[in-house]
Design brief:
Elements (H helix, E strand, L loop, with lengths): L3 E7 L3 H13 L4 E7 L3 H10 L6 E4 L2 E5 L2
Parallel strand pairs: 1-2
Antiparallel strand pairs: 1-3, 3-4
């Protein structure tokens, strides 16, 4: 079975940490959860290219699924 790729764009804030905990608690065994730090210039550029303007944001298999405001 192929792994489901879940990416969390994080600024390291409290809300980001809570989102990470939530996603990890509901992720299935076939989910590959990765945290991407907005402190990394390439991550920031990718987030801008995807239209992400607030943190945290969650991509599920390349599709933006959660943006908390």
């Amino acid at each position: 079975m192929a792994k489901r790729k879940v990416e969390i764009f994080s600024a390291g804030c409290g809300v980001c940490d809570e989102t990470l905990k939530l996603v990890k608690s509901i992720a299935c065994s076939s989910c590959d959860v990765t945290v991407l730090s907005m402190n990394d210039a390439s991550v920031s550029k990718r987030a801008r290219d995807l239209g992400i303007r607030s943190m945290p944001a969650v991509l599920d298999c390349g599709e933006l699924t959660v943006v908390l405001r």
